[in-house]
């Protein structure tokens, strides 16, 4: 599932393949930009911003994309047959003499002025993997609405950019509280530790495709609770539960995490 670390990893693969090279192929397969032709322009760089990707192209243009749940960018040697899904799922193609990038199932794809990137990403909070990461500001935003559940506050990209459904569940587990606990009921110092842990985990995972939050390799366990509904908690052995929070699947351990509980779903 694409979260901030996945997007960072994708951006750096795209940047290595495209930056500094002139486009010899350009195909944006969305109605609004289907006639846009970027061939002959040089790619200046690909930058991640939270869960957003900004591909900057000479002439003051930026191709803005968002992966959401199942979008992806794949890079192949030019002339190589792409392998990322059926051809009809390709929404964008950017190629040069050496490499070609294919964007599959991209729910957001738009060509905007680089000077106007704020219209796409200006609402985001501090970027966990950005050069201007500001933990104090992230804590302030996360704590701004004391009545809001921790899970909702973590998912809100206006608070801190880069956390998705996996990290929401894992961070709540590591903090020892359920995702339904109001932010205002967190013990003193917990918001600061949550933000620091989020930054540490995304930094640790940004260079690898197999995300890990655990510190043990026993049994190949990479995550504490996410995706483990009905299975034993790796810490206490209690069955991990699964329920919905803000229309998103959420996992937690009733033995390790204190706070409001929910009726588990199947």
Short description:
With 266 residues, the protein is α+β, with helices and mostly antiparallel strands.
What does this structure look like?
There is one protein chain. The protein is an alpha+beta fold. The chain folds into 2 domains: 4-121, N-terminal domain of MutM-like DNA repair proteins (Alpha-Beta Barrel), CATH 3.20.190.10; 135-252, Helicase, Ruva Protein, domain 3. Helices cover 23% and strands 21% of the residues. The chain is built from 6 helices and 10 strands; from the N terminus they run αββββββββαααααββ. The strands form 3 sheets. A 4-stranded antiparallel β-sheet has the order 1-6-7-5, with helices on one face. The chain has a 4-stranded antiparallel β-sheet with strand order 2-3-4-8, covered by helices on one side. It has a two-stranded antiparallel sheet with strand order 9-10. The longest helix is centred in the C-terminal third of the chain and has 16 residues, at 190-205. The protein is elongated.
Major sheet attributes: 4 strands, antiparallel
What is the correct CATH architecture of the largest domain? Alpha-Beta Barrel
Query: In CATH, what is the homologous superfamily of the largest domain?
Result: MutM-like, N-terminal
Question: H/E order of the elements?
Answer: HEEEEEEEEHHHHHEE
Write down the domain tally.
Answer: 2
Instruction: Determine the CATH topology of the largest domain.
Output: N-terminal domain of MutM-like DNA repair proteins
Low-confidence sequence ranges: none
> What share of residues is helical?
10-25%
Average pLDDT value?
95
What's the total count of β strands?
A: 10
Net shape: elongated
């Amino acid at each position: 599932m694409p979260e901030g670390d996945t997007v960072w990893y994708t951006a750096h693969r795209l940047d290595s393949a495209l930056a500094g090279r002139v486009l010899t192929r350009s195909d944006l397969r969305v109605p609004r930009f289907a006639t846009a032709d970027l061939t002959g322009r040089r790619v200046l760089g690909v930058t991640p911003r939270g869960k957003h990707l900004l591909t900057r192209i000479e002439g003051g243009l930026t191709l803005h994309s968002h992966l959401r749940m199942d979008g992806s960018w794949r890079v192949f040697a030019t002339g190589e047959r792409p392998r990322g899904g059926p051809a009809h799922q390709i929404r964008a193609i950017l190629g040069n003499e050496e490499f070609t990038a294919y964007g599959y199932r991209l729910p957001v794809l738009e060509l905007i002025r680089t000077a106007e990137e704020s219209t796409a990403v200006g609402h985001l909070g501090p970027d966990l993997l950005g050069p201007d990461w500001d933990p104090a500001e992230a804590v302030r935003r996360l704590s701004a609405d004391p009545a809001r559940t921790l899970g909702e506050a973590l998912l809100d990209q206006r608070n801190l950019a880069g956390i998705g459904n996996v990290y929401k569940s894992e961070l709540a587990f590591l903090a020892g509280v359920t995702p339904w606990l109001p932010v205002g009921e967190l013990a003193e110092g917990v918001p600061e530790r949550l933000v620091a842990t989020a930054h540490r985990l995304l930094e640790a995972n940004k260079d690898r495709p197999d995300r890990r939050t655990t510190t043990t390799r026993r049994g190949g366990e990479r995550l504490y609770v996410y995706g483990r509904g009905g299975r034993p908690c790796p810490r206490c052995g209690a069955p991990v539960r699964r329920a919905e929070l803000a229309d998103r699947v959420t996992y937690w351990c009733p033995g390790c995490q204190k706070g409001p509980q929910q009726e588990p779903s199947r």
